[in-house]
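## Example record

The block below lists the input lines for one assembly entry, exactly as stored, with component labels intact.
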Amino acid sequence: MRLPPRLTQAFVVSLLGLATAATLVILVFVIVFILRKGLPAIDSEFLFTKPQDMGRAGGILPTLVASVILPLIAVAIAAPLGISTAVYLTEYTRESRVTRMIRFGADCLAGIPSILFGLFGFIFFVTILRMGWSLLSGGLTLALMILPTIIRTTEEAIRAVPNAYREVSTSLGATRFRTTAKVVLPNALPGIVTGIMLGVGRSIGETAAVIFTAGSSLRMPASIFDSSRTMSVHFYILAREGLSSEMAYGTAAVLILSVLAVNLVAYGLMNRFIRRRS
Amino acid sequence: MPVKFSIQRLSTYYGSVQALRSLSMDVAPNRILGIIGPAGSGKTSFLRTLNRLNDLLPDFRAEGRVLLDGVDINGPDTDPVLLRRRVGMVFAMPVPLPMSIYENLVYGPKLTGIRDYQRLGEIVEKSLRAAFLWDEVKDRLNLPALRLSGGQQQRLCLARTLALSPEVILLDEPSSGLDPISTARIEEALAELKSAYTIILVTNNTKQASRVADETAFFLMGELIEIGPTEKIFTAPKDRRTEDYVTGRFG
Amino acid sequence: MIRIGEKTVRRLLMAAAFSAIGGLLLIALFIFKEGLSFFIETGFRRFLFSDVWDPQSGRFGIFPMLVASLWVTLGAMTLGAPLGVSVAIFLVEFVPRSVMRVVKPTIELLAGIPSVVYGFIGVMVLAPFIRSSFGGPGLSLLAASFILGVMILPTIISISVDAITAVPASYREGSFALGATRWQTVRMVVLKAARSGIIASVILGMGRAVGETMAVIMVAGNAVKIPHSPLDSVRTLTANIALEMGYATGRHREALFATGIVLFVVIMILNTAAGVMVRKRVSGKRG
Amino acid sequence: MKTPKSLIRILSFSVLSLLSAWTAGCRSGKSSVTLAGSTAFQPFAEKLAERYMLIHPEIGVTVQGGGSAVGIQSALSGAADIGMADLVRLPAEAAELQPVTVAKDGIVIVVHPSNPLSGLTLDQIRGLFNGTIRNWKELGGSDAAVTVVSREAGSGTRTSFEQIVGGFSLTGDAIIQDSNGTIRETVANDASAVGYLSHGLLNEKIKALQVDGVDCTVEAIQAGRYSLVRPIFLLTRGAPTGAAAAFIEYVRSPDAQKVIGESGLIPAIQ
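Predicted structure tokens for the full assembly:
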């Protein structure tokens, strides 16, 4: 019994609406849960002083600084590498068994647990390369962790750019690099920003890999060679060692608000850039 | 008789499929050459070989020689990028780049290194006037090009190619999907441009060829059947297949 | 404009590509190097198919964890993938662009929340709810699947949204012009055009689900048992690695790396299966 | 107009080259001591490091976590000067390391506050954890199936707990959580749960039980009447020297031992 199209349309759209509502309810529940438990702990002292008494008192300033620097290092390394790899795989090589294997490898590595990335970072960056526990070791490890996602999302975004644009640009006397830089990448920007934002989200929220590489020292990092504790790791230690759940959720609340701010700013910038162009 | 393009036994292949079969012809400068023939006769493939746009296709291969002013464009010392600046192309479906009208027009010139704002402005005006589009867009150049109508977009693409000040202009069925007025506008522009450029117009609209082209070539199944002055081709074609096509008995 | 030589650009990009792929290869080799010696000594069969995991007495069997990992990933995908793709379709096709531009960053916020926080919400809210309404310990396969399903939503939604928005408007207009409703257009034209992006989002989402460590440990209960019902407590391969790596030395540590190798192979199989399944279902719709 | 893409690319390439040029760069001038290992002792070590650096600002002390095995490995490989471990018996690899006991930690059996029981004998504990006692009513509690909650294999707390209670292997369907905080949260949310954790983590959401009639108090542990106790070791490769020796000396000093006592552990030296 085939429903008339009008009816299936109404039925399906309400189903999709229900799914979106459910997702938003879960999202709101998670945020309210954290903010309700965390907001009371937040005041200027909490944000701008060093932790005292194992984190049971004082503020979380060093973790704030680390939570900004670490994803920056990770993205500063993973974004150019990832985008260049994706451009190389889509624009500069023909679709072949090799490119399919690289894509498959990237997909599989996107599934490797972060603990194994942490151990690799610990043995390779911390011990063998003698970088010690530092934001640099952590940044490099996180860069490797988010690389597969950035490569794959950038590739999909580039493949979505209509071929006609490439032909027009080429026919106007542009080299392959010019075509890529002036037409392909600007049009693939939304996909690329999504990949980078997922990478930032993942590196801000990561704990296991970061503890083994960036370490968990509570001191304020003076340079990228110092070990430091991100807000996620701080929440991890406070909550799991049972030191203080108020401070733990206070940290989580600050973390959520900063991630939301970063997301909104990034999308604001991107949308302004797109509106100006097309 | 001076020659712009001299094509000698040109054959093209997409992987194993052969498009053109050992085609030879000469193209005179500063005239309009019309190319007619049924769909799939290799007209577009031929056009895209002249500015080496087929290089973008991974499994494309060309044999034979294509001389532009005596130099083989597939030869080692021809840089395809410079070639495309001399041989501009307008596509069948208008494809404005997702930028403003101004940025579409200065896209080509900027690639050649022209930075001076004043000079770019002149180029924009000259090419828009040549494409009979200047009056309609002169005060909204920052509008995104995608907002223009179909006819306007096609004339923008023509203007964009003219902005490169190429020597040859290739047109791949420029008026397919255009209303008669826009089509007339394009044909007017071509007649005007003939004096300064060599124009090769591919069209499956035989009347357009008869109206605009000086010489006409008839392609069929990847072969050049006949080439000659337009009146002769349309009134007294040598080959029976040309006659059948021109009189509309098939194709 | 000086023209950067095409050759230097190609070489630069190739260098970047190979360093990225080299780095990723380094990790795969690292895992295989550390774990392979274990396989050589104890062989595959006992490791893969015995169900006793007792490092203290040197008995290493991961069969229960293999089964648990498959069930948890399946559970997470049955919740996360359809929900994620549906939300993506709804946001792009049935909601004004301005609303989508605000909702998408907030949904992506879910990706930034540390998995430890999800773990605690699971222990404090989800587990007691499951225990009271369905029985069992609460910390179970069901709890792990639900939490993972929620955690992979941002990945699937944002990548699918991009894939769907990238479908040119002319495709939709063509379909409307033929009298198709919005949903028919989405089902028959848009989904098929956005297929490769949706597949990528499902695979990356599944990768996130399989690779998730912290949240799974806290809500799954981690009992080394083959689950007979969603209410049983389970331990996944990933959880096993993370749980004991902090204290494992000698052969116990090699066994955990060997678990890493098995996990890598499981991910390869799941990726190929997911790719084929989604490709068939989406193109099958053309019907 | 330079597209943002190439701007980002150039920016990050310069950052990358800067980073690689600096990787071998010199570390901060002042001499430093790095500790790594047991996550349970990490917060306490940080507190002691904080106080130590007030007294000796010229020495930088950083504390890392990662677990006892990472502590042992780091001490062996030199990535850390001092390893931290909370295992009753150190594994074979730690043979070359010299252990120094700096604190003790009481392990307390915890149940949900609604659980009527007030104490258990060692045999009862053994019965609960090896799965022979399956229902609370066998111990005089309410009629409910027991949920056993334990730490993961290899953790210091679990290994010490199993070695002191002795003679049992954990029941197959025990819930495993890998930190004191999550065990406390699990027991606090399950009326029929029983688990164990460091006595420093007791709070109103869970109830401690007596072991063989003895409460887990500092006096009982110091006097040796409370049996479930484990040592916390600081490990160094050979005899401790230089800044590491100075810090270990400080940790064993009365001032530091007092701090350890106040923040939830048992001083090793009265």
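Residues 44 and 260 of chain D are 7 Å apart (CA to CA). The longest strand of chain D covers residues 97-111.
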